[in-house]
Amino acid sequence: MENFYRSIGGLGSTALTLDRPGIEVENVRLLERFYHWQNKNLTESSLPPAGTLYLTPTHLIFVNPAEKRETWVLLSHIGTVERSSILPAGCPLVIRCKTFLSLVFIISKDRDCHEVYSALLRIAQPSTFEELYCFSYNPGEGNFERSAGWNTFDIQFEYQRIGVPNRHWTLTKMNQNYDICDSYPQYLYVPTCASQKVLLGSAGFRSRGRLPVLSYLHPSTNAAICRCSQPLSGFSARCEEDEQMLACILRATPSSRTVWIIDTRPRLNAMANRATGKGYETEQNYVGMKVQFFSIENIHVMRSALNKLVEVSDLKAGSDDLNVPSHSIFLDGLQATGWLKHIRAILDASVFVAEKIVEGDSVVVHCSDGWDRTSQTCALACLLLDPYYRTIHGFMALIEKDWLSFGHKFSERAGHLRPFYTGGGNSPAVTPSSAVSMVMDTTREQSPVFTQFLDCVWQLLVQKPYAFQFNERFLLVLHDHLYSCQFGTLIGNNEKERKELRLEERTYSLWGFMKRHLTEYINPLYDAERCRNMDILVPDIAPQQLRLWVMMYNRFEEGIHPREPLLSALTILKDHSSSLEDHLQLLEKRISLLKEAYKQHALMSAAGPVANGLSHSPHGSFSSAGSASDLSRAAVITDSVALDWKAVRDVSFCICSTPFSQFSMKYHCWRCGDVVCRRCTEMHAPLEGLYSNKPVPVCQLCYDRLRINGSKKAFLPSVKS
Ligand SMILES: [Zn+2]
Ligand SMILES: [Zn+2]
């Protein structure tokens, strides 16, 4: 796990601003496996060598000089900090990250442990937006521009793409100043036949003013996915405008026999809401509508399920006497979390929505406030229906639409800000040294809603790998940055809040960052052609088809992941073969030119001894076939492309001496075939031996050598931003 954060996104050294005082503690030991530390007989001699723990304004860094290892943890990733009772060897400090990394430090002095503990509680979760990492993050010179990625998505283009405005759907500017609904975007698409009175009336009858609006329009059936919040119906209240609003949606879909109202909540929850003046639609009042409940549980149930899942994962290595729990203990534990049941419920609702749309019926999706379960369901249904959303660019557009534009409480759900101390500078009371503290985990609003969305996408990716342009790494990087607060993209709860924070001017965009590393996210099994002829992607949600996402929840457990995942091996193979094909093309071209030159030479020799065969190729000229300069050029050509690429399997260091962790991508230099890190292939250069003449990845060594040899061809950095 060393250097992990460096390797996933430059979260490392550039962030170190030592102008602010940090904390430095010596004689600290990092325990790799969880079970060591609970052993009461633990003595100093049985511990790993001691190192130094640093706390900077942005990172916790542990340096172990004996093993030449550095462990970097971004402070925004820290979920809980816990002190345990003192052992003979020192004071244990347990840190759990939102990215499912758990670390146990043994700090020899109790006073030091206390200092680190209270500092972490103070700074890991800031109390104001201004303190978030994105406002101080600077990728450093020569990296990407601040504007990169911010103008990638204009949500209006997305509506144009799905064909609105049109005869049935129109743009309304009534929320231009966020007066009707402050968690909705400024511009909304609604049925053309809905009058201003109907829109206002419906907004007034919906929780937080979130009236039914268009989220997606199917290109061939013209059926619509609309989204909203629950009606304020209580036990018997009615609203004529709201009933008309849904009737307008039915009228805007000529093919629709009925409009399905998808209440994603379990029926019991929806009924319980009636007691508080909210609830669900009564079918008798809404003519032509059908209400269908699904059983996606609320944020509190989901949070508790994830906490249990983390416990079960710890269980794998957490018992005192055994290294691993028995099979049945683990499976029973997993069953008790209910996690896969919840994933299934979300997929179930999404598949239902997608199927109704293909059949030509419009749907209106809601939950309580319409920003958690509704976002999950609408986004997943779109993903099943439209192959565009399964491309890298399209998936970003989908997040922009159903999560950012329509509002999702990222600040609370991801716990970006400390909930109970907002505005104030007070730190939480520090508990006595022997007590266990879980201060940050007790927030009522935190919930893995977006994590579940990514999990559902992963289930689809595993079942239908050909349908996705992106790979698992893409989803994991997104998840890391949901919590990192490094970029402004996923900060804030709605469009209005983001504008007020002026994120575009003051922070960098996650999309800009990810677009620089696109090659890492390409799924080699993607088959765009095959997707084009498909109406809908239907996953199998039978219980035996849903799996635990080990790469997400157990990502940091060493030794359980394949050393060389199949798909990255496939990516390397594809790159290598395209390099060889390019080379082959050049060689074939040369052979035919040489043959031609030889023929001419033979003809001219027959005609007279003074004639000389000259020929020109698009890749430089050569003199008469077989001359000395021609032979040396042939050598240059064959030497400039690596025929063999070094196997990545046992390479643990790059030539620049950066260690490869289990999460690092490994690249090849196309010239020498060596295995290098990402930073070492930033430079691209055209090679003499390639027909295409396009700049390809080369290592720093080869790059310098090419430059010394004075090639006049252009040298380009890998990314144009
Ligand atoms: Zn090289
Ligand atoms: Zn390197």
Describe this structure in words.
This protein is α+β, with helices and mostly antiparallel strands and 721 residues long. The protein is globular, with a radius of gyration of 30 Å. The protein starts with a helix and ends with a strand. Helix content is 35%, strand content 13%. The chain is built from 22 helices and 21 strands. A 7-stranded antiparallel β-sheet has the order 4-3-2-1-7-6-5. The chain has 3 domains: 4-124, Pleckstrin-homology domain (PH domain)/Phosphotyrosine-binding domain (PTB) (PH-domain like, Roll); 155-317 and 338-422 and 445-538, Protein-Tyrosine Phosphatase, Chain A (Alpha-Beta Complex), CATH 3.90.190.10; 566-717, Zinc/RING finger domain, C3HC4 (zinc finger) (Herpes Virus-1), CATH 3.30.40.10. Helix 4 crosses helix 5, helix 9 packs across helix 10 (373-385) and helix 10 runs antiparallel to helix 11 (392-405). One zinc ion binds next to loops. Belongs to the protein-tyrosine phosphatase family. Non-receptor class myotubularin subfamily. Keywords: Hydrolase, Lipid metabolism, Membrane, Metal-binding, Zinc, Zinc-finger. InterPro entries: Myotubularin, Myotubularin-like_Pase_dom, PH-GRAM_MTMR6-9, PH-like_dom_sf, Prot-tyrosine_phosphatase-like, Tyr_Pase_AS, Tyr_Pase_cat, Znf_FYVE. Substrate binds at residues 298-299, 367-373. Residues 149-553 form the Myotubularin phosphatase domain.
Q: What about the largest sheet?
A: 7 strands, antiparallel
| Rg for CA atoms | 30 Å
Task: Count every helix, treating DSSP H or I runs of 4 or more residues as helices.
Answer: 22
- Strands of the widest sheet, in order across it, are 4-3-2-1-7-6-5
Let me know the CATH homologous superfamily of the largest domain.
Protein tyrosine phosphatase superfamily
> What compounds sit in this structure?
zinc ion
